[in-house]
Amino acid sequence: MAVGQRSHHTKVRESLTDLLFPRPVRIHSKVAARVAQQRPNSVHPSASTVSDWRHLLEERTFAEWAKLYGDVVYAKLFQRPVLVLNSLRAAQDLLEKRGSKYSSRPRLVLLSELMGWDNVLTHMPYGDRFRKHRRWMHDGLQSKETLLGYRPVQRRETYTLLAGLLETPADFASHIHRWAVGTIMEITYGHRIHSLDDEYVRIARTATVETVLAGSPGSMLVDFFPVLKSIPTWMPGAGFKRNAFKIRGMVRELMDSPYNMVKRAMSSGNARPSFTASLIEDMYRRDSSTPAEEEDIKGAAGAIYAAGTDTTVTVLTTFFLAMVLHPEAFTKAQAEMDAVIGRSRLPDIEDRGSLPYLECVLNELYRWRCPVPLAIPHNLTEEDEYRGYHIPGNTMVIPNVWKMSQDPSVYPEPQKFRPERWLEMSPQTLELANPRKMVFGFGRRICPGREFADDLIWLAMASVISLFDIRKAVDSHGKEITPAATYCSGHPDAFACSIRPRSEKAGDVIAQARSALAA
Ligand code: HEM
Asked: How much distance in Å is there from the Cα of 456 to the middle of ligand 1?
């Protein structure tokens, strides 16, 4: 039985997401806000309703705006134009069909310019550098051959997750975290971790946690008034800048140390294949080793690590939560697993096509609690017109994925977790309603790790269902504990659950799978 305490790792996980998928703005609640009434479908919350800007920029608030003003809402926040897209249609019309204009990122003064996260794809403006990084992501994460090459690592880390759940089920949150970090560390740097206390994990965690802690409401003001960037560090009010420079050193370590580790391993002939090693090798082959090229490789690897861990952790944790709250879905998935795979071996990614109900469970997980509710904001690079309205250039565009995933006209009773809804859809509706069309973002910025993540999460879910029973935990009086299922910025709050092996032979099944992998 797990104890519903928020673990250290859970806190770190939240920080990572905040870093890579920053809330578009964090503004001190006392700071006067100005929202100018603008076309199209403009919105003008009065000063009294705008008591806390962080609340204002929540997906639910944006969804309220949609009720009042329509699915496309334009507002001005501190003179910065923002367009909120509350429907899949609008997101596809703009972010996909007009990708050449809508694929940049807003300028992030604090994170990119002061703290040094500028070489990371997630924050990069549209242009040649962006295209180079996307090409690397495509080659290193999306080709069929590369994805097949990652499977042994995905399997190995999944077996480690199962062994952890067998030994200390109460620590399930930290086993999930280790599973994601272990997989990503190895594919990115060829580095195999033995625990979350690993040196490189610690370096990454320190830099990212400190970054997010420093992004306090006040300091984010510099994103709205970039002129504050030039304030001398000795001046009162420049504390954010002094802090940002301190964090810059940590970010540097995060970029440099795993990169140098890969280089050392390559020169001693001990490097495992990895994203970083392939890029370094290619750089040497092309004889193009320059500090700028090295900086790009460091940033590309850093982006994979930071964007890939937290998101995957969120989905698998949501899986445990959904199974605790919906035992009927869990039982059905387990019955399907037993009928198709049996109980003497673990399922493998190759079995995916023969487990349709499990596929519905995964679809529903993405939709029910979409992992990144506001995706990452895009930026419009030049003025545009949509539905007869003018949108100025340099507008920040926020797709409200949460609202899209809760659209009752596509997903009746959207608040319910009901995998069966996917079985009831016609093939055409299924195509339109596929949550992968929104939860991984849009157009030229769509998540390059989506197939990798999808396979990894499927494998973990399938293996857990095959080997364990997941139920509600019970308290000291024997009373079942129902998790509150509350979320913060897309992450489930810590909850308790009971995870028990279905048979005494669970350990043998894991051992067999491990030795088959080693053979
Ligand atoms: C279920 C897991 C995941 C979800 C839900 C997810 C979601 C997203 C979303 C919403 C975006 C923003 C897209 C946009 O701006 O329109 C994104 C970007 C990105 N993701 Fe993922 N992601 C996941 C896993 C991964 C993994 C495993 C990796 C790497 C192995 C990864 C790497 C990236 C990168 C590098 C970007 C930046 C793309 C860019 O700015 O051009 N993600 N992801």
From this structure: 14
Structure-token match 């305490």, residue found? 5
CA of 446 from ligand 1 middle (Å) equals: 7
Distance 474 CA to ligand 1 centre (A): 36
Q: Print the SS3 string covering 265-292.
A: HHHCCCCCCCHHHHHHHHHHHCCCCCHH
- pLDDT tens digits, one per residue of 285-323: 999 999 999 999 999 999 998 889 989 999 999 999 999
Structure tokens at 256: 């440099």
Q: How far is the CA of 308 from the centre of ligand 1 (A)?
A: 7
Q: pTM of this prediction?
A: 0.89
Asked if residue 1 lies in contact with residue 474, where contact means CB atoms within 8 angstroms, the answer is yes
Q: Is the CB of 126 under 6 A from ligand 1?
A: no
**Contacts made by residues 290-294, CB under 8 angstroms, sequence distance 24+:** 294/259
**Is the CB of 377 within 6 Å of ligand 1?**
no
Residue 462 contacts residue 323 (beta carbons within 8 Å): no
Would you say the CB of residue 363 lies under 6 angstroms from ligand 1?
no
Mean per-residue pLDDT, 68-82: 87
Q: Which two tokens stand for residue 456?
A: 């990894």
Distances (CA, A) of 467 to 3, 329, 496: 21, 16, 19
Phi, psi of 38 (to 5 degrees): -135, 155
The conformation of residue 391, written as its DSSP 8-state character, comes to E
| DSSP assignments along 305-324, one per residue | HHHHHHHHHHHHHHHHHHHH
Query: Does the CB atom of residue 299 touch ligand 1 within 6 A?
Result: no
- Rounded to the nearest 10 degrees, the angle between the axes of helix 450-467 and helix 144-167 is 30
Query: ipTM of the predicted structure?
Result: 0.99
Angstrom distance (rounded) from CA 290 to CA 188? 21
> For strand 378-379 and strand 396-399, is the pairing parallel, antiparallel, or unpaired?
antiparallel
Which atom of ligand 1 is nearest the CA belonging to 122?
A: 40
**Structure token digits, residue 463:** 């293996």
